[in-house]
Amino acid sequence: MNALPRILYIDDEEELLTLAASFFAEEGLPIETCGSFSQALEKIRSKPYDLIISDGKMPLGSGKDLLSIIKAEKLEFGKFIYVTGNLDFQTSADKDEFDYVFFKPFNFQDLLDRVKEIL
User: Fold this and answer.
1) Strand partners, 51
2) Is 69 a member of any domain?
3) Any idea what the CATH number is for the domain that residue 69 is in?
């Protein structure tokens, strides 16, 4: 990997974003973060990302809604990791839409390992 990949982490929990940004930066993989569905859509519309990590449930929309808009508008992106606390999110049809699904609570090292594997 010559240039650092462009990674966007979306979650409406500010503490989680701060923790994620710090953890990824310590591992030499800085990420951009945003705390709202609308802000995420604005960022994704303005530039492509190699990886989008999105919380499943946010005010104004879900990670699934976000991916649907990205695909409908034919926005450029690489991979999409969906993070959810909904243990009912088990159907293969739902999971097949995403490159990977993480269930909360999760270990940031596990997420980082998966990110490195995906990229």
Assistant:
1) 7, 79
2) yes
3) 3.40.50.2300
Neighbours of 22 (CB within 10 A): 12
d(CA 73, CA 48): 13
* Domain hosting residue 67, numbered range: 7-118
What are the two backbone dihedrals, phi and then psi, of residue 11, each rounded to the nearest 5 degrees? -160, 145
Bridge partner list, 84: 103
Residue 101 lies in a domain: yes
Confirm whether 1 is domain-assigned.
no
Tens digit of each residue's pLDDT (9 = 90 or more) over 4-48: 899 999 999 999 999 999 999 998 998 999 999 999 999 999 999
Q: What is the total count of domains within the chain? A: 1
Per the document, the length of the chain is 119
**Is residue 11 within 8 Å of residue 83, measured between CB atoms?**
yes
Question: Rounded CA gap, 15 and 118, in Å?
Answer: 25
Phi, psi of 107, deg, nearest 5: -95, 130
Whether residue 105 has a cis bond before it, omega within 30° of 0: yes
- Assess if residue 50 is contained within a domain: yes
